[in-house]
């Protein structure tokens, strides 16, 4: 007897585990009705749901073997009584049944779906013939009622957690959007006034001009951080706009490297190229990708080290490589490196100012919108890394130098 009981409980436990991945109450109830019919060797089953708003029952599920559509339970009937008392009701003869049900069953059990004072409805497991419920079957019925209610409760909590999480993410994105817009105007104003003042001070006080150059440099960094926050908000809301034109990739790389070279005076950037690739895309956003990779390479490389940039054709696409000789990427970070706001624990070893951990995330999203990809290769520890991106190009306009 005990072995049979354990076997039946095991069947219900499997259903409990299966219900963990379900997000629909009806699917959860269906699994428990079917399992209850199986372990009790019953003929069919169905379930009523309690509607808290309307304060009434409705037919929630009936298996395909149920020979009739049951009427909505009466306010003072068996179902209502079971629901209120939270105890199964066992029927072993048809005399206590409603007239419309008598011809379809001789025995049944009505099981309340309750869990820690949370009530969700009832399950009816029915037999065509008379059925006297053994003690172990009564234990199973109570276990089914508690288990299905617990599964529904967990499902509701999961949905609430997901809704709360989405709400918090939305609020965070709105905050970033508002904060970034509010910061953008004063940063632009500071930069403008510094440039005007610098022009006036170059001849009067070279020392003051030197410090103004430093202010301007850090204002540019602050401006990039603000733009990063704005871009993340636009990416998450699908509002990042692209103005696609046809441009030549090697020319863009040279232009960006010349500009970044000034901002990264402690690193030597070389550029190797033997092709010209015509790209259809947003050149400003691709420029942003290149800048992010170069500044990232400089940040994690020792002062005075080289950064090698190369352009080649790979698998029918243009491939841009940015190679540094810095600290490399440890294995733990490699799975998370493209996530937004991720910063390596090795950032303390970097030579640059700490950022927000958005550069690689933004770069990858920009490339996705261009049909491109962003990848990396980490060399041996403390030997550096190679970040590279692939972009489709117009094969009719490639000119070998």
Describe the protein in words.
- The protein has 401 residues and is of the alpha+beta class.
- The chain has three domains: 2-162, GAF domain (Beta-Lactamase, 2-Layer Sandwich), CATH 3.30.450; 169-237, Helix Hairpins (Orthogonal Bundle); 245-400, Histidine kinase-like ATPase, C-terminal domain (Heat Shock Protein 90).
- It has ten helices and 14 strands.
- The protein has helices spanning 2-19, 25-40, 78-85, 99-102, 135-204, 206-237, 249-263, 283-299, 331-334, 359-368; strands at 44-51, 56-62, 89-91, 107-115, 118-127, 245-248, 268-273, 275-276, 278-281, 306-314, 317-324, 373-378, 385-391, 399-400.
- The chain has a five-stranded antiparallel beta sheet with strand order 2-1-5-4-3, sandwiched between helices.
- Helix 1 runs parallel beside helix 5 and helix 5 (135-204) packs antiparallel against helix 6.
- The radius of gyration is 34 Å and the shape is elongated.
- It starts with a helix and ends with a strand.
Topology:
Elements: H1 2-19, H2 25-40, E1 44-51, E2 56-62, H3 78-85, E3 89-91, H4 99-102, E4 107-115, E5 118-127, H5 135-204, H6 206-237, E6 245-248, H7 249-263, E7 268-273, E8 275-276, E9 278-281, H8 283-299, E10 306-314, E11 317-324, H9 331-334, H10 359-368, E12 373-378, E13 385-391, E14 399-400
Parallel strand pairs: 7-10
Antiparallel strand pairs: 1-2, 1-5, 3-4, 4-5, 6-9, 8-14, 10-11, 11-13, 12-13
